Amino acid sequence: DGGITQSPKYLFRKEGQNVTLSCEQNLNHDAMYWYRQDPGQGLRLIYYSQIVNDFQKGDIAEGYSVSREKKESFPLTVTSAQKNPTAFYLCASSRGTAATNEKLFFGSGTQLSVL
Amino acid sequence: GQNIDQPTEMTATEGAIVQINCTYQTSGFNGLFWYQQHAGEAPTFLSYNVLDGLEEKGRFSSFLSRSKGYSYLLLKELQMKDSASYLCAVGPNYQLIWGAGTKLIIKP
Fold first, then answer.
1. Are strands A10-13 and B9-13 parallel, antiparallel or unpaired?
2. What digits encode the pLDDT tens for the residues B83-96?
3. DSSP labels for B42-79?
4. Which chain A positions have a beta carbon within 8 Å of B89's beta carbon?
5. Handedness of CA A57, A59, A63, A65 (dihedral sign)
6. Alpha-carbon distance A40 to A113, whole Å?
7. pLDDT at A46 over 90
8. What is the distance between the alpha carbons of residues B48 and B66, in angstroms, rounded to a whole number?
């Protein structure tokens, strides 16, 4: 079955450490996105990518980095520069370009916490 | 500024009908989405409205009034599995504005 797989489900980060969240999709979607979800707030876009080797900053990109070396994969690195990384991270994909209104397909999320 | 408002929490009874409202103020409008999210899980797509009026899909319906910046999600014949958060978002995808979500609690 096609879908989006995020791993790990839970992740703990030590101070000063970079951590990478995995996101893989087999839906053959061009556009992929990373969101951060905090309690009581709407989803906030971190980065998005419309094609391989290209990605754009979202509203809260500071302290995060991404890569898009393959169409299927869009990993997110939370760097030590992100001082408040504790949140639920969601990866999503959609058909067409990010400028369209195609529905988003989400992964099951990664809960990141600081030790 | 741009923002979307939804009630934080609502409670309803199994078998009843509930209406979840969403008001938005955005610089542009390309369409409005509703997603369902069970606790700790991924959001899943429910509906999309781009024109005024009601879109019906089984037990769920969604309404849009662009002139009023208003939408609602109507859930009929509520089931316990409908206990979840309901997220309203205004597109396009690369600049979706999301509401904080409405937590719906279903009581027997």
1. unpaired
2. 999 999 998 777 88
3. --EEEEEE-SSEEEEETTEEEEEETTTTEEEEEE-S--
4. 42-43
5. negative
6. 17
7. yes
8. 13
